[in-house]
Design brief:
Length: 224
């Protein structure tokens, strides 16, 4: 078993599935298959597993189920899942993507996570894929609490603040460091001029999302 297999908690019978899942299209150049087809399959497997879990666990209308599912399987959530297993360090990238921060790019990590799901599904079946997926999905108690926040933290924070028309939030970049191709930004989110959250990221958008996530956590919301 490789170190990455230990991290994800699954040992492959056919390791070629894993290698394909970890191969970005920028790396291929005729050498092997990229993970794009696996990404397509993984998206469907993820949707089926999460949909069934929500259907069996929550007695709420279809619209509410759809909203919860969309937050669980959106790009931002998959990016957070991928970071938990350090997926970016294991992806094979072309030099161009490597040099422009591809290992931490949301779209690349989210797509690779879906490809990883598909690789486990093809190698071990739906139950193995389900067991892997459920490691990242919040418990029924958290889902029922109404305090779960996943995905677009800025939008959720804005929706909460807008319940009080006299209050408003703004984001300010307070610092940026590093070379032009590898900057790290620090952002603050301010409520009526007071800092309520701070976050860092490889882009201004990512730093603002991190700041909103911290603010929501301090407000008592469960953040992924």
């Amino acid at each position: 078993m490789t170190e990455f297999e230990r991290v994800i908690g699954y040992e492959y019978k056919n390791p070629s599935y894993l290698q394909e899942a970890l191969t970005h299209s920028s790396y291929v150049n005729g050498r092997s298959s990229s993970n794009e087809r696996l990404e397509f399959l993984g998206d469907s497997v993820l949707s089926v597993v999460v949909s069934r879990y929500l259907f069996e666990s929550l007695d709420v209308p279809e619209g509410k189920l759809t909203k919860i599912r969309s937050r669980l399987v959106c790009e931002d959530s998959l990016y957070e899942f991928a970071k938990k297993i350090d997926l970016g360090s294991n992806i094979k990238l072309g030099k161009g993507e490597e040099n422009t921060g591809g290992r931490d790019r949301r779209s690349i990590l989210a797509d690779a996570f879906e490809a990883l799901i598909a690789s486990i599904y093809l190698d071990g079946g739906l139950e193995c894929a389900r067991e892997f997926i459920m490691k990242f999905i919040p418990s029924v108690e958290v889902l029922k609490s109404g305090k779960l926040v996943m995905g677009d933290y800025k939008t959720v924070l804005q929706e909460i603040i807008q319940q009080n028309p006299e209050e408003h939030i703004v984001y300010k970049i307070s610092d940026e460091q590093g070379a032009a191709h590898n900057k790290v930004f620090t952002a603050n989110v301010l409520l009526n001029g007071q800092v309520i959250g701070t976050g860092c990221g490889k882009s201004k958008k990512e730093a603002e999302q991190a700041a909103a996530k911290e603010a929501l956590g301090l407000m008592g919301y469960e953040t992924n």
